[in-house]
Input
Amino acid sequence: MMIKMTNKKQAAFLSGFCPAAALALLLCLPLPAGAASENIDIEARIVGPFDLIATQPLSFGDIIPDNTVSGEVTIDNAGTPTENNVTLVGGTVQAGTFTLVDDTTDQVRITVPASTTITDGANSMTVDNFTLGASGDVNVLSGNNTNDLHVDVQSSPATGFTVGGRLVVPDNQPAGNYSGTVEITAAYD
Output
């Protein structure tokens, strides 16, 4: 459609015409018969990051290895040891514990790798078969006593968890104070 400008007033009016104004004008017109409109709510929730805080180490105690065959010590999530071809003679034996500090109640996946190594100088031993358990106010959705725990956190700000595992002790393992770490990861799920 061509607009013919007949005078300067019309030209000034149309030169200041804005497409956004035309759209606004159209939105104010009544809807045709049979049409409807509705508003929907828009929401967003911003959640803060959470923290994992180690509160107690996973400790296998004092161990005497066998002279001829490899052995192992397994600590379950309750901290109960099971020994095979080794002798526990004292020391601290306990499951590790950590706290998830979160300002919300959400589903969280907590994982730990399949294995890690603890060392004393050049000597090492493998820790594997990690198990995770919930000791706080959570609903375990899947993975209890595995290395991949999926939970629905029921309360905030803090919820407790445990970690157990197996220490593989080679025969004639040299004496020493072995230590290391394992990375526990938590993410919203």
Notes: Helices lie at 8-15, 19-27. The first strand starts at residue 51 and ends at 56. Residues 10-14 have pLDDT under 50 and may be disordered. The CA atoms of residues 132 and 163 lie 5 Å apart.
